[in-house]
Structures are given as C-alpha cells and as structure tokens.
C-alpha cells in the first residue's frame, strides 16, 4: 500500500464506484425502479463492500492477502458442496478437505514452497480424497461423489490460489510491485464481467449458450470484452508489460473469465440452481462473483511467467520455505 501507483488504481476504482452510486441512486429516486435497476443498485453497493475487503487485505501485506484468499476458498467450496447433499460416508472426507487440504495448500503457497504448491492438490489430495471416501464404506455413486469433491477442490482452492501467488512472481525491475499485478488481474476480469452484463442488457440479442446462461450474449462478450481489454491496455503503466502485451494479457483474462463463468454456470444448472448462494446482494453467492477468476488466475499466472521468463523454483528455494515457516512458528 506504500506504492503510489497502487493507490492511484484503488483511487480510480473508488471514483468509479462513487459515480456509479450517484447515477443509480438518482435514477431510483426519479422514476419507479425496475428489477434491472434495483439489481444494478444492489451490485454497486455490494462492490463497495468487496472493494473495502480487498483493499484491506492488501493493506495487511502478503500474509493478509493469503489469509483473505484462504477465507474466500473456504466460503466458495462451502457454497459448491452445499448445493449437492453429501452422504454420511463423505463427511470425514469433507473434514479432510476443509481442515487439512485447504490450510496446508495455502501454507505451501504462503511459504512459498512452489513445488509442493503445484502438486499438493492435483496429485496428493486427489489420491487422499477417494481413499478417505472408500474407507467410509459407501459405494453408492462413488465415482460421481468423489469427482464432485475433487472438482470443487480444484476450482475453489487450487485455481483461486493462483491469485495471491502472483505476489511471488520474480519479475526483474518489478520487485515489490506485484500487488499491482494482482490488482490488474482482478480489475480487468471483474470489469469484463460488468461490461458484458451492461452491453448484454443494452444490445444482447444472440445468446451464446441459452440453456447454460441466457444472459451471456455475443454482443455482451464482444463489446464488453473490447471495453475491458481497452481498460486493461490503458493500465499498462501499472504492469510489467508494454501496451501491446498488456492488451494481449487483458484479452486472455476476458476470454478465460468468460469461459470460467460459462463452465461454472453449467455446473450450477446441472445441480438445479440459479445462484451459488445469497451472500452478496445482487450477485448471488461468493462463487458467483469468483467464477470468472477461476480459469483466468492459473492461465494468467503461467502465461505471464513464461512471457517474462520467470523461474519460481530458483527464486523461492526450500531454505526460504523453512525459514518462513520457522518465522511463523516463532
């Protein structure tokens, strides 16, 4: 939070929220509010709270950021698993996931133990989960139940954890500024969601997958995506990219965010639900707000690392890992 450019970014978002609040409140007072306008006002008010929480986590430093995303993963996974009843035989498996797999994964990320961060969930945890369920003795729909838990762990914990891991990317000439890169990813992805929603409401006529998400239209994706890409390109000065690379990275975030949201909507529909929860007025649940980040975060992390020729294994060796864990213990 001592980085002036990061403060400029936060100030810009606050200014946009102030303008959006004034517009929505004025429209609601001057005319009979429509359901769309009421939903828009709820969304703007919710964004104030989300911005406050996100900014507070940045103010607390790396540990605050990792703690914040640990909580988000917990809430997102809880919403995911709540939509589908879990038989008694899987209760101990869920305890393993929530109280061992999740905290250990974020501990490896915070340390940072990059090698273990990469394989803890897709290798070790994916082995432990079916073993624990098999020991429960319930074979009814065993594969379906196990795959559902594994998918929830992969998306809500593993994919989401790539966002705070951006703080550890070793970027020459950009040391100590990685919080801006995290802010860039979240900002572009979320603005893309907002722009697609707005343009879809104004001009949307051709749904892309009507049975999955009727509100996602070609017009919303194209015009909203172009607007978000333009905003991301204009913020190149806050990133380690030149304008052309910032445009390409923004387009990647737009596409990955759209596809992530579409896939999670398909999962939602298969479970017979419209929203993942009701925790955020106007948005649904926590996972409804995070779905576009689930695919965008890991893709951006690895593409960015490849483009900038970073080496996480070399930058964050095992000795640093144990030093950080020892410091935490002390």
Automatic annotation (TrEMBL):
MF annotations from Gene Ontology: nucleotidyltransferase activity
Protein name: Phosphatidate cytidylyltransferase
Primary subcellular site in the record, as a coarse category: membrane
Keywords (A to Z) from UniProt: Membrane, Nucleotidyltransferase, Transferase, Transmembrane, Transmembrane helix
InterPro entries on file: PC_trans
Signal peptide: none
Transmembrane regions listed in the UniProt entry: 6-23, 44-60, 117-137, 149-169, 181-199, 220-239, 245-267
The species this protein was found in: Haloferula helveola
Recorded catalytic activity of this chain's protein: a 1,2-diacyl-sn-glycero-3-phosphate + CTP + H(+) = a CDP-1,2-diacyl-sn-glycerol + diphosphate
The family this protein is said to belong to: Belongs to the CDS family.
Pathway linked to the protein: Phospholipid metabolism; CDP-diacylglycerol biosynthesis; CDP-diacylglycerol from sn-glycerol 3-phosphate: step 3/3
Protein's membrane topology: Multi-pass membrane protein
EC number: 2.7.7.41
Top-rank taxon, per record: Bacteria
Pfam family, one: CTP_transf_1
UniProt-annotated location(s): Membrane
